[in-house]
Amino acid sequence: MPTLAAALAAALLAAPDGTPPPPPALALADALRELDSQNLTLAQARARADEARAVVRQAASALIPTLSATGSYTRNSDQAIFGLPGRPQVYIQPLEAWQGGAGLRVPLLLPSAWFDLGAASQASEAAQASAEAARLDIRAAFAGSAWLAVMGEEIVAASERAVAAAQEQEQSARRAVSAGTAAPLSVLQARTVTARRESELVQARSELERARLALGVFLGRSGPVRVTLPAEAAGAGLDPEALVGEALSRRPELRAREAEVGSASRQLDSARWRWAPQLSASGSIFAADVPYPTGQKDGWRVTVDLAWPLYDGGYRYGKARQAEAALAGAEAARALERLQVGEEVQNAVRDVAVARERVRLGERQQEAAAEAAASARRSFGAGVAGSIEVIDANDRLFQAEVGLADARARLGRARVSLDRAVGRSP
Questions:
Q1: Rounded CA gap, 357 and 353, in Å?
Q2: Cα torsion 374, 379, 381, 385: sign
Q3: pLDDT tens, position by position, for the chain (426 residues)?
Q4: In this structure, what DSSP letter does residue 286 have?
Q5: How many CB atoms lie within 10 A of CB 53?
């Protein structure tokens, strides 16, 4: 029943031509907040960062004292008891015994473990920075898709105006034919254009619905979403050098590469410190229901252990070489990332400048096409121009409006790309 009610409501709210009503509008800021909480790609990135944080806890466990408890029950086939007159019996092998104990181990000197912890911490920072980079990517992609949807809305509006102009020209042609100032062919020409414009309107509405549905998928919704974008600020001059400097300080990818270099460096230190001795202390308490050979049913033990691996078959040498190669690769990746960031910022600045010029020229073209179309319609009404001139002028106006919508969307997407290149969020 809820589905039927929704269908009836949609039918009542639908436009007279049968098109479904637009979905409720969602402001860009609200949509981005929902994106952060609902997008599944971001959820995966955060999960990877959480995994890296868990690895840090695992690496730290080697440096933290450990406590364990044991318990056992023993049943032997025979028992052996030794005793002297006047002395307590000594149980060499009791027939059955219950035993329990607890042990504490305290690491005192584990140099490689400290560097392993540092490497894991740096890797966790890299994973968190990568998650932030993924967040910026998703937000930029969402804002870019929102601009595509806005372009679709403008194209639909231009198509609706084109349909209305074509229908008006068809009616004007009929009146001119009735008055004897135009040939019947003009009516057929106008009717053909009307059919083409209506087809283009159907296609434009379909593309708009597709764009809105893509926005809904970004937000984890199954239906279309309409996003309203804030008014664009007036264009200001862009300083590529200043923007590159800002990007080098803001981009999470660079922080991730820096953390990866730090992690690789600490892994190399860890590999080298595997030659160092390791020192630890341990203590334990134990108890049983049968006396030990000491005659006591409980006791304690404290030990200090020194381990110094002198030769392990070459494992440490291989580990060090692997760490050296990983460090060289991380440093190369960091240098490459810095170059790519500079390239992205300069390309984005250039794209914004080109898009601004296209918008300016598109506005001029649209104004001229609108004046030409109005002049052609007046001339046709006066019998000075033919139907072909009006159809051609209307077509040029439609193409100019579509081109202007595309130019505005390209400018919006270029600004989003620039913000992403600099490390800003939409």
A1: 6
A2: negative
A3: 344 444 434 443 445 555 566 777 889 999 999 999 888 888 899 999 999 999 999 999 989 999 999 999 999 888 888 777 777 778 888 889 999 999 999 999 888 899 999 999 999 999 999 999 999 999 999 999 999 999 999 999 999 999 999 998 888 888 878 877 777 888 888 889 999 999 999 999 999 999 999 999 888 888 899 999 887 755 566 889 999 999 999 999 999 999 999 999 999 999 889 888 999 999 999 999 888 888 788 889 999 999 888 888 888 889 899 999 999 999 999 999 999 999 999 999 999 999 999 999 999 999 999 999 999 888 887 777 788 888 899 999 999 999 999 999 999 999 999 999 999 988
A4: E
A5: 15
Residue 74's alpha-carbon distances to 98, 99, 285, 289, in angstroms, are 7, 8, 18, 11
Residue 18's contacts (CB-CB under 8 Å, 6 or more residues apart) are none
DSSP states of 107-123: EEE-HHHHHHHHHHHHH
Dihedral pair phi/psi, residue 82, rounded to 5°: -115, 130
Look up residue 31 and give its two tokens.
């949509």
Nearest to 425 by CA among 31, 25, 26: 31
Report the Cα–Cα distance between both ends of the chain, in Å, rounded. 41
CA distances 207 to 148, 153, 199, Å, are: 10, 9, 13
DSSP 87: S
Instruction: Give the type of residue at 392.
Output: D
The pair of structure tokens assigned to 56 is: 């840090």
User: What distance in Å separates the CA atoms of residue 157 and residue 153, rounded to the nearest whole number?
Assistant: 6
d(CA 107, CA 60): 12
Output the CA–CA distances (angstroms, integers) from residue 151 to 198, 199, 205, 228, 331, in the order listed. 18, 18, 11, 12, 43
Under DSSP, is residue 382 helix (H, G, I), strand (E, B) or coil?
coil
Sequence-separated (6 or more) residues with CB below 8 Å from residue 281: 105, 106, 108, 302, 303, 304, 305
Compute how many other C-beta atoms are within 10 angstroms of the C-beta atom of residue 51: 11
| Helices first, then strands: H and E counts in the chain | 9, 8
- Angle of helix 111-179 relative to helix 252-272, nearest 10 degrees, comes to 160
Burial of 75 (0-12, 13-18, 19+ CB in 10 A): exposed
Burial status of residue 245 (CB atoms within 10 A of its CB: 0-12, 13-18, 19 or more): middle
Contact 268, 329 (CB under 8 A): no
Alpha-carbon span 328 to 335, nearest angstrom: 11
CB 82 within 8 A of CB 89: yes
